[in-house]
Structures are given as structure tokens and as C-alpha cells.
Amino acid sequence: MAGPPLADRATGFEGSQIRVMFDLANESDSDDLVRLEIGEPDFHTPEHVVEAAYEAAMAGETHYTSTLGLPELRVAIAEKLERENGVSVDPASELLITMGGIEAVYLALLVSANRGDRVLIPEPRWPNYEMQAELIGATPVRVPLSGDDGFALDPDRLIEEIDDDTGAIVLTTPSNPTGRVYDADAVRAVTEAAADHDAFVISDAIYERLVFDEAAQTVAAATDSPANVIEVNSFSKGYAMTGWRIGWLAAKPEVVSAAQQLRQCLSLCPNTISQYAAIAALTGPQEPFDEMRDAYAERRDVVVDRIADIPELSCARPEGAFYAMVDATALERPSLEMSKELLTEHDVVTTPGSAFGPAANGYIRLSFANSIERLETGFDRIESYVRSRR
């Protein structure tokens, strides 16, 4: 006998093309796949961070913490924001520790957008923003950026979409999936226009530690009036701590207070042991994290050079994160078909650009969170694929 029907929200999502490629790769019979689709550091969490978690667990730090998170961690994050980003926050009232960046984004949407409010999302975009906006009953609005300028942030395109029904605008810099770092003047213009319409800007800064050619600057640092900015971040990417599930949300006290109340319905409080690991990541030796960033920058250069050697491909130089959005429109094939062919015919796993919205159809996203040796092998195979399509 069939059970009751599932709620609409549980059945209405389309399958992500990111997961399509991930699942196809896992089902492959090949034992030599070059996996360039995964947005995860290939480095292990540094030893001093793991040791701090172990010591905390052995000392009995295995109980609930405040819903806001450990005071010591909030102080460490506030010091980091001041030192590295030039942003001042009160650790007691303007910071909330979260279960990774995804919970931080969800809480930011919950406190900023009512049912029916428009949530503006520049495209290409990480699809979770759209799915989370739909979950809370808001209306996600994709704002396509132009591939002609490498999907740089076009403030005019966003500003013309802002109206009094706009609850929030999501800005991700450095960007997943393009690796672009948004121009500070463009960010400032969007943030100020949002404030004029009483709309929030949700700044996803999860990759801000992985900026290669300039000092990292968050959205809050780019504006003189950050009252409408909700900054979310995570230890996952820049600190190689994806499995620890620890992040944070920074905003004005009334925003943090509201998010604190709502998160009691989600996770109550963050993972205690992971919070001690995060303290060690922020206050311990920084050399391991700097070495990771330098390695990504070196790999970025290899990727850009290899793409430049293939006439049918092009790519805006990634300024941060560990992704390259490769323009393969000259091959005149849909993104998903190209990614499937690269997998089945050449043992290279990529993410179709169309997974990030129609604006990137004809593109493929490559992650360079992989060794230079494997990247070179992957590009040898990509080049072979392109030759076969000439």
C-alpha cells in the first residue's frame, strides 16, 4: 500500500547536472579517470588543526555550545576579519557560527526574503542559491552576465532588476563557477542600490582566502554602509576543511539575532569539536594554508596556458577560487553532451557550464583542485577530444 504523497517542495526540484556527472563518473568502469569536476580541495586538513580537534574531544569538549557558537571562535573570526579584510564586527553580537557555508546561506535567505520576494542571482551561479530561495517561498531571479567579458559583474544589469519587491541579492566573489573576483566599484554600486530599496546583499565569501593576484576584499569592505550586507563564509575551501562542516555568518546585531533564533529549528548549534579545529585554523600556523593558495595559483597558470594552446577554447583568467569556466562554444555542442563525451570517450570528468544556468551553455567548468600532473593528463585528453570534433 502506497504511503501519503510527499510535499511539493520535496519533489519539485530538477536534478542537478553537477550530480549527473558525479554519478556517471562513479559508475564508470575506467580506473584512470581524471576528475576535474569536484569543487573540493585535494589537500588534507593540516595536522595542527586535526590535533586541536583531537585534544578538544579527549578533554571532554563534546557537549552543546551556545547557538551563536563558541565565544573564542567568534573572537578569532572577528580578529581575522579585521586583520585580513579590514572589516570590524562585534564578536558578541555580529557573528553566528554555522554548520558550513550552506547553512549560513540558508539562514541569510530566511532572514532577508519573505515569501514572494525576489532574490537576484547573477548567472552563471551555484545552483543551491536558487534551490534554497525556492524552499523558503521566495522567487529566484537569474540575472545573466556576459561571457564576452568573462562573466565579470555588470552592476547595471543587476541594478535595473532591483525593485521594492527585492528581498536579497546574492554576490559570490571569488565566483563559483567562474573564478572571477568582482570589481570593488561594481560591488559598491550594487550594494548601495540594494540599500536604496531596503534589500539585503548576501555576500558568499567562501573562496575569499583563495585570491591569487590581489588582496582579498569582501563585499562588506567594499561599501561605506554595510548595514544591508550579510556576509557568509566557511572553513571548507580555503582551509581544506570540507568535512568539518563549519562556517559563519556576519551581519548587524538584529540580523544575527534573528538568524540565531531560526537556526534553533535547523541545527541548534555548531559541531563543538569542529569549532575547536576552526580556532586552531585561524590562530595557528598559517603557512600550510598559504602554501595551498600558492599551489592553486600555480595550477591556475597551467590551466590558463593549456587552454590558450587549444584554438577552439578560451577562458577568462581566474582571479580566485579553483575553477576555470572554459568557453567551448566554437565546438557548437551543448555543455552536457560535451561533458558526457569527455567522460565516456576520453576519461575526463568535467562539469557542464549549463549546470550553472543557460548563460553558460556551451561552456565547461574545470576544477584545478588537482595535481599539475593530473591536470596535464586531463588537458592532453581534452585536446584530443577537441581535435576529434574539428
From TrEMBL:
Under the heading PANTHER family, the entry gives:
ASPARTATE AMINOTRANSFERASE, ASPARTATE AMINOTRANSFERASE-RELATED
Its domain of life? Archaea
Family (UniProt): Belongs to the class-I pyridoxal-phosphate-dependent aminotransferase family.
Pfam families per the UniProt record, alphabetical: Aminotran_1_2
Q: Required co-factor?
A: pyridoxal 5'-phosphate
Give the residue range of the signal peptide.
Answer: none
GO biological process per UniProt: amino acid metabolic process
Which GO terms of the molecular function aspect are on file?
pyridoxal phosphate binding; transaminase activity
> Protein name, please?
Aminotransferase
The cross-references to InterPro entries, in alphabetical order and at most eight, read: Aminotransferase_I/II_large (IPR004839), AspAT/PAT-like (IPR050596), NHTrfase_class1_PyrdxlP-BS (IPR004838), PyrdxlP-dep_Trfase (IPR015424), PyrdxlP-dep_Trfase_major (IPR015421), PyrdxlP-dep_Trfase_small (IPR015422)
Question: What residue stretches are annotated with the Aminotransferase class I/classII large domain?
Answer: 32-380
Q: What class of enzyme is it?
A: transferase
Instruction: Name the UniProt key words of this record, in alphabetical order.
Output: Aminotransferase, Pyridoxal phosphate, Transferase
| Subunit organization | Homodimer.
Annotated CDD domains: AAT_like (cd00609)
EC numbers on record: 2.6.1.-
